[in-house]
Structures are given as C-alpha cells and as structure tokens.
Amino acid sequence: MKNKNVFLLDDEHTNISWLVEWLNSKGCTTETAASADEALNKLEGKVSKFDCFLIDLNVPTSVHRGTGPIYTEYPGLAVAQKIRSWGVAGGKVVIYSVHLTPQLEVEIYEKLSCKYVVKGRPRELKSVLIKDLSL
C-alpha cells in the first residue's frame, strides 16, 4: 500500500480523521475534500494521480450536477459520475454511505460500475481498501 494516493470526500471530520490516520500508517498519501465543489475543484485534471477514490454520497454542494434527481439528492454520486467520466475505472471508486436504495444500487453498480461499502463499518471499509490498494 506504500506510495498509493487516495482521495477522500466526506464532510464528517471524524470519518476523515481516522481514515487519513490509518491510510498514512499504511504508507499512503491522502487528499481530502469536505464538499462536492471542493472535490471537483481539486480533482479536475488531476485524477490520474490517485489510486483510489473514497466518496461519501451525502456531502454539501452549492451547484447541483449530474443527471437526474438522485444526483441532486446525493451530490457525492455526481462527483463519482464525474470521476468516471474523466476515465477512471469504476473499481477505483468506492462509494460509502448509510444510504442504499434500489435506485442508488442501479446508479452505483450498473451505471457507474463503482463499489459500495456501508458507512460506519470500518472493518469492511479497510478490507475493501486493502484489497484495492494491495496493502
């Protein structure tokens, strides 16, 4: 996992703090954003430098992006869609949230081909990141 770069989008400081600490202890570098706007500004033209993207669905935004009301309701989904549109493989994008409706399942798994982890389950999240980043 050494020398891997991970981008984290989450507006909850406690989630970002333990993730950054854990990833850094594994030799990863991290970049964080607390809103959809901040994430897109940091990522535009720079997605190739990241090995993995961890995206919370429910984050603040000032501009609604994406196609359809579900992207307005969950701004993190619009960020994931944009990352995918920039050519990032779906397997590198991990969406984590407490929300998972049938409509979200279609968007996450079928349309975006991303991974999903239930937020609040650190063991499961670590397992996915270890596998994805070969830690």
UniProtKB/TrEMBL annotation:
<dbReference type="InterPro" id="IPR011006">
    <property type="entry name" value="CheY-like_superfamily"/>
</dbReference>
<dbReference type="GO" id="GO:0000160">
    <property type="term" value="P:phosphorelay signal transduction system"/>
</dbReference>
<feature type="domain" description="Response regulatory">
    <location>
        <begin position="5"/>
        <end position="134"/>
    </location>
</feature>
<protein>
    <submittedName>
        <fullName>CheY-like chemotaxis protein</fullName>
    </submittedName>
</protein>
<keyword id="KW-0597">Phosphoprotein</keyword>
<dbReference type="InterPro" id="IPR001789">
    <property type="entry name" value="Sig_transdc_resp-reg_receiver"/>
</dbReference>
<dbReference type="Pfam" id="PF00072">
    <property type="entry name" value="Response_reg"/>
</dbReference>
<feature type="modified residue" description="4-aspartylphosphate">
    <location>
        <position position="56"/>
    </location>
</feature>
